[in-house]
Amino acid sequence: MKRFTFVIAVLVGASVVLLQAGGQPIRARNGMVVSQSEIASQVGVDALEDGGTAVDAAVATAFALAVTHPTAGNIGGGGFLVHRAASGDAVAYDFRESAPAAATPTMWFENEEYSFERHHLSHLSVGVPGTVAGLHLAWEEHGTLPWSRLVEP
Question: Which of 20, 49, 58, 137 is most open to solvent, judged by the fewest CB atoms within 10 Å of its CB?
């Protein structure tokens, strides 16, 4: 009975959260920028209003988020960007962190055995950030505003 009560409580709680997040969809004709930071979203809107593309807005928003809400993504990490070009083609960018150039298949081994500590807790477990390079590549291919305009303070 306790388990049943717990399940019901979780379902009711989830329903309340969904109802609070619900409402009418918001539609836009000329563009929309949404992020976890009002300031960062405004930076993206400003890029659109200056004649930039959706990729320009995404890049500007991403760099602003690195300052206003760093846990939402940061230039010290990686990410993904999916873009639908004017032609209708979908383009995906994967700029997750990558292994350092000197990485080897056995770098997480110690005494010829796999070491959890070396793999997850040591300096060897740190990846090379890909955010800046990935955003720059997307901008090179689909941006129109100057790069300096998108990354300015």
Answer: 20
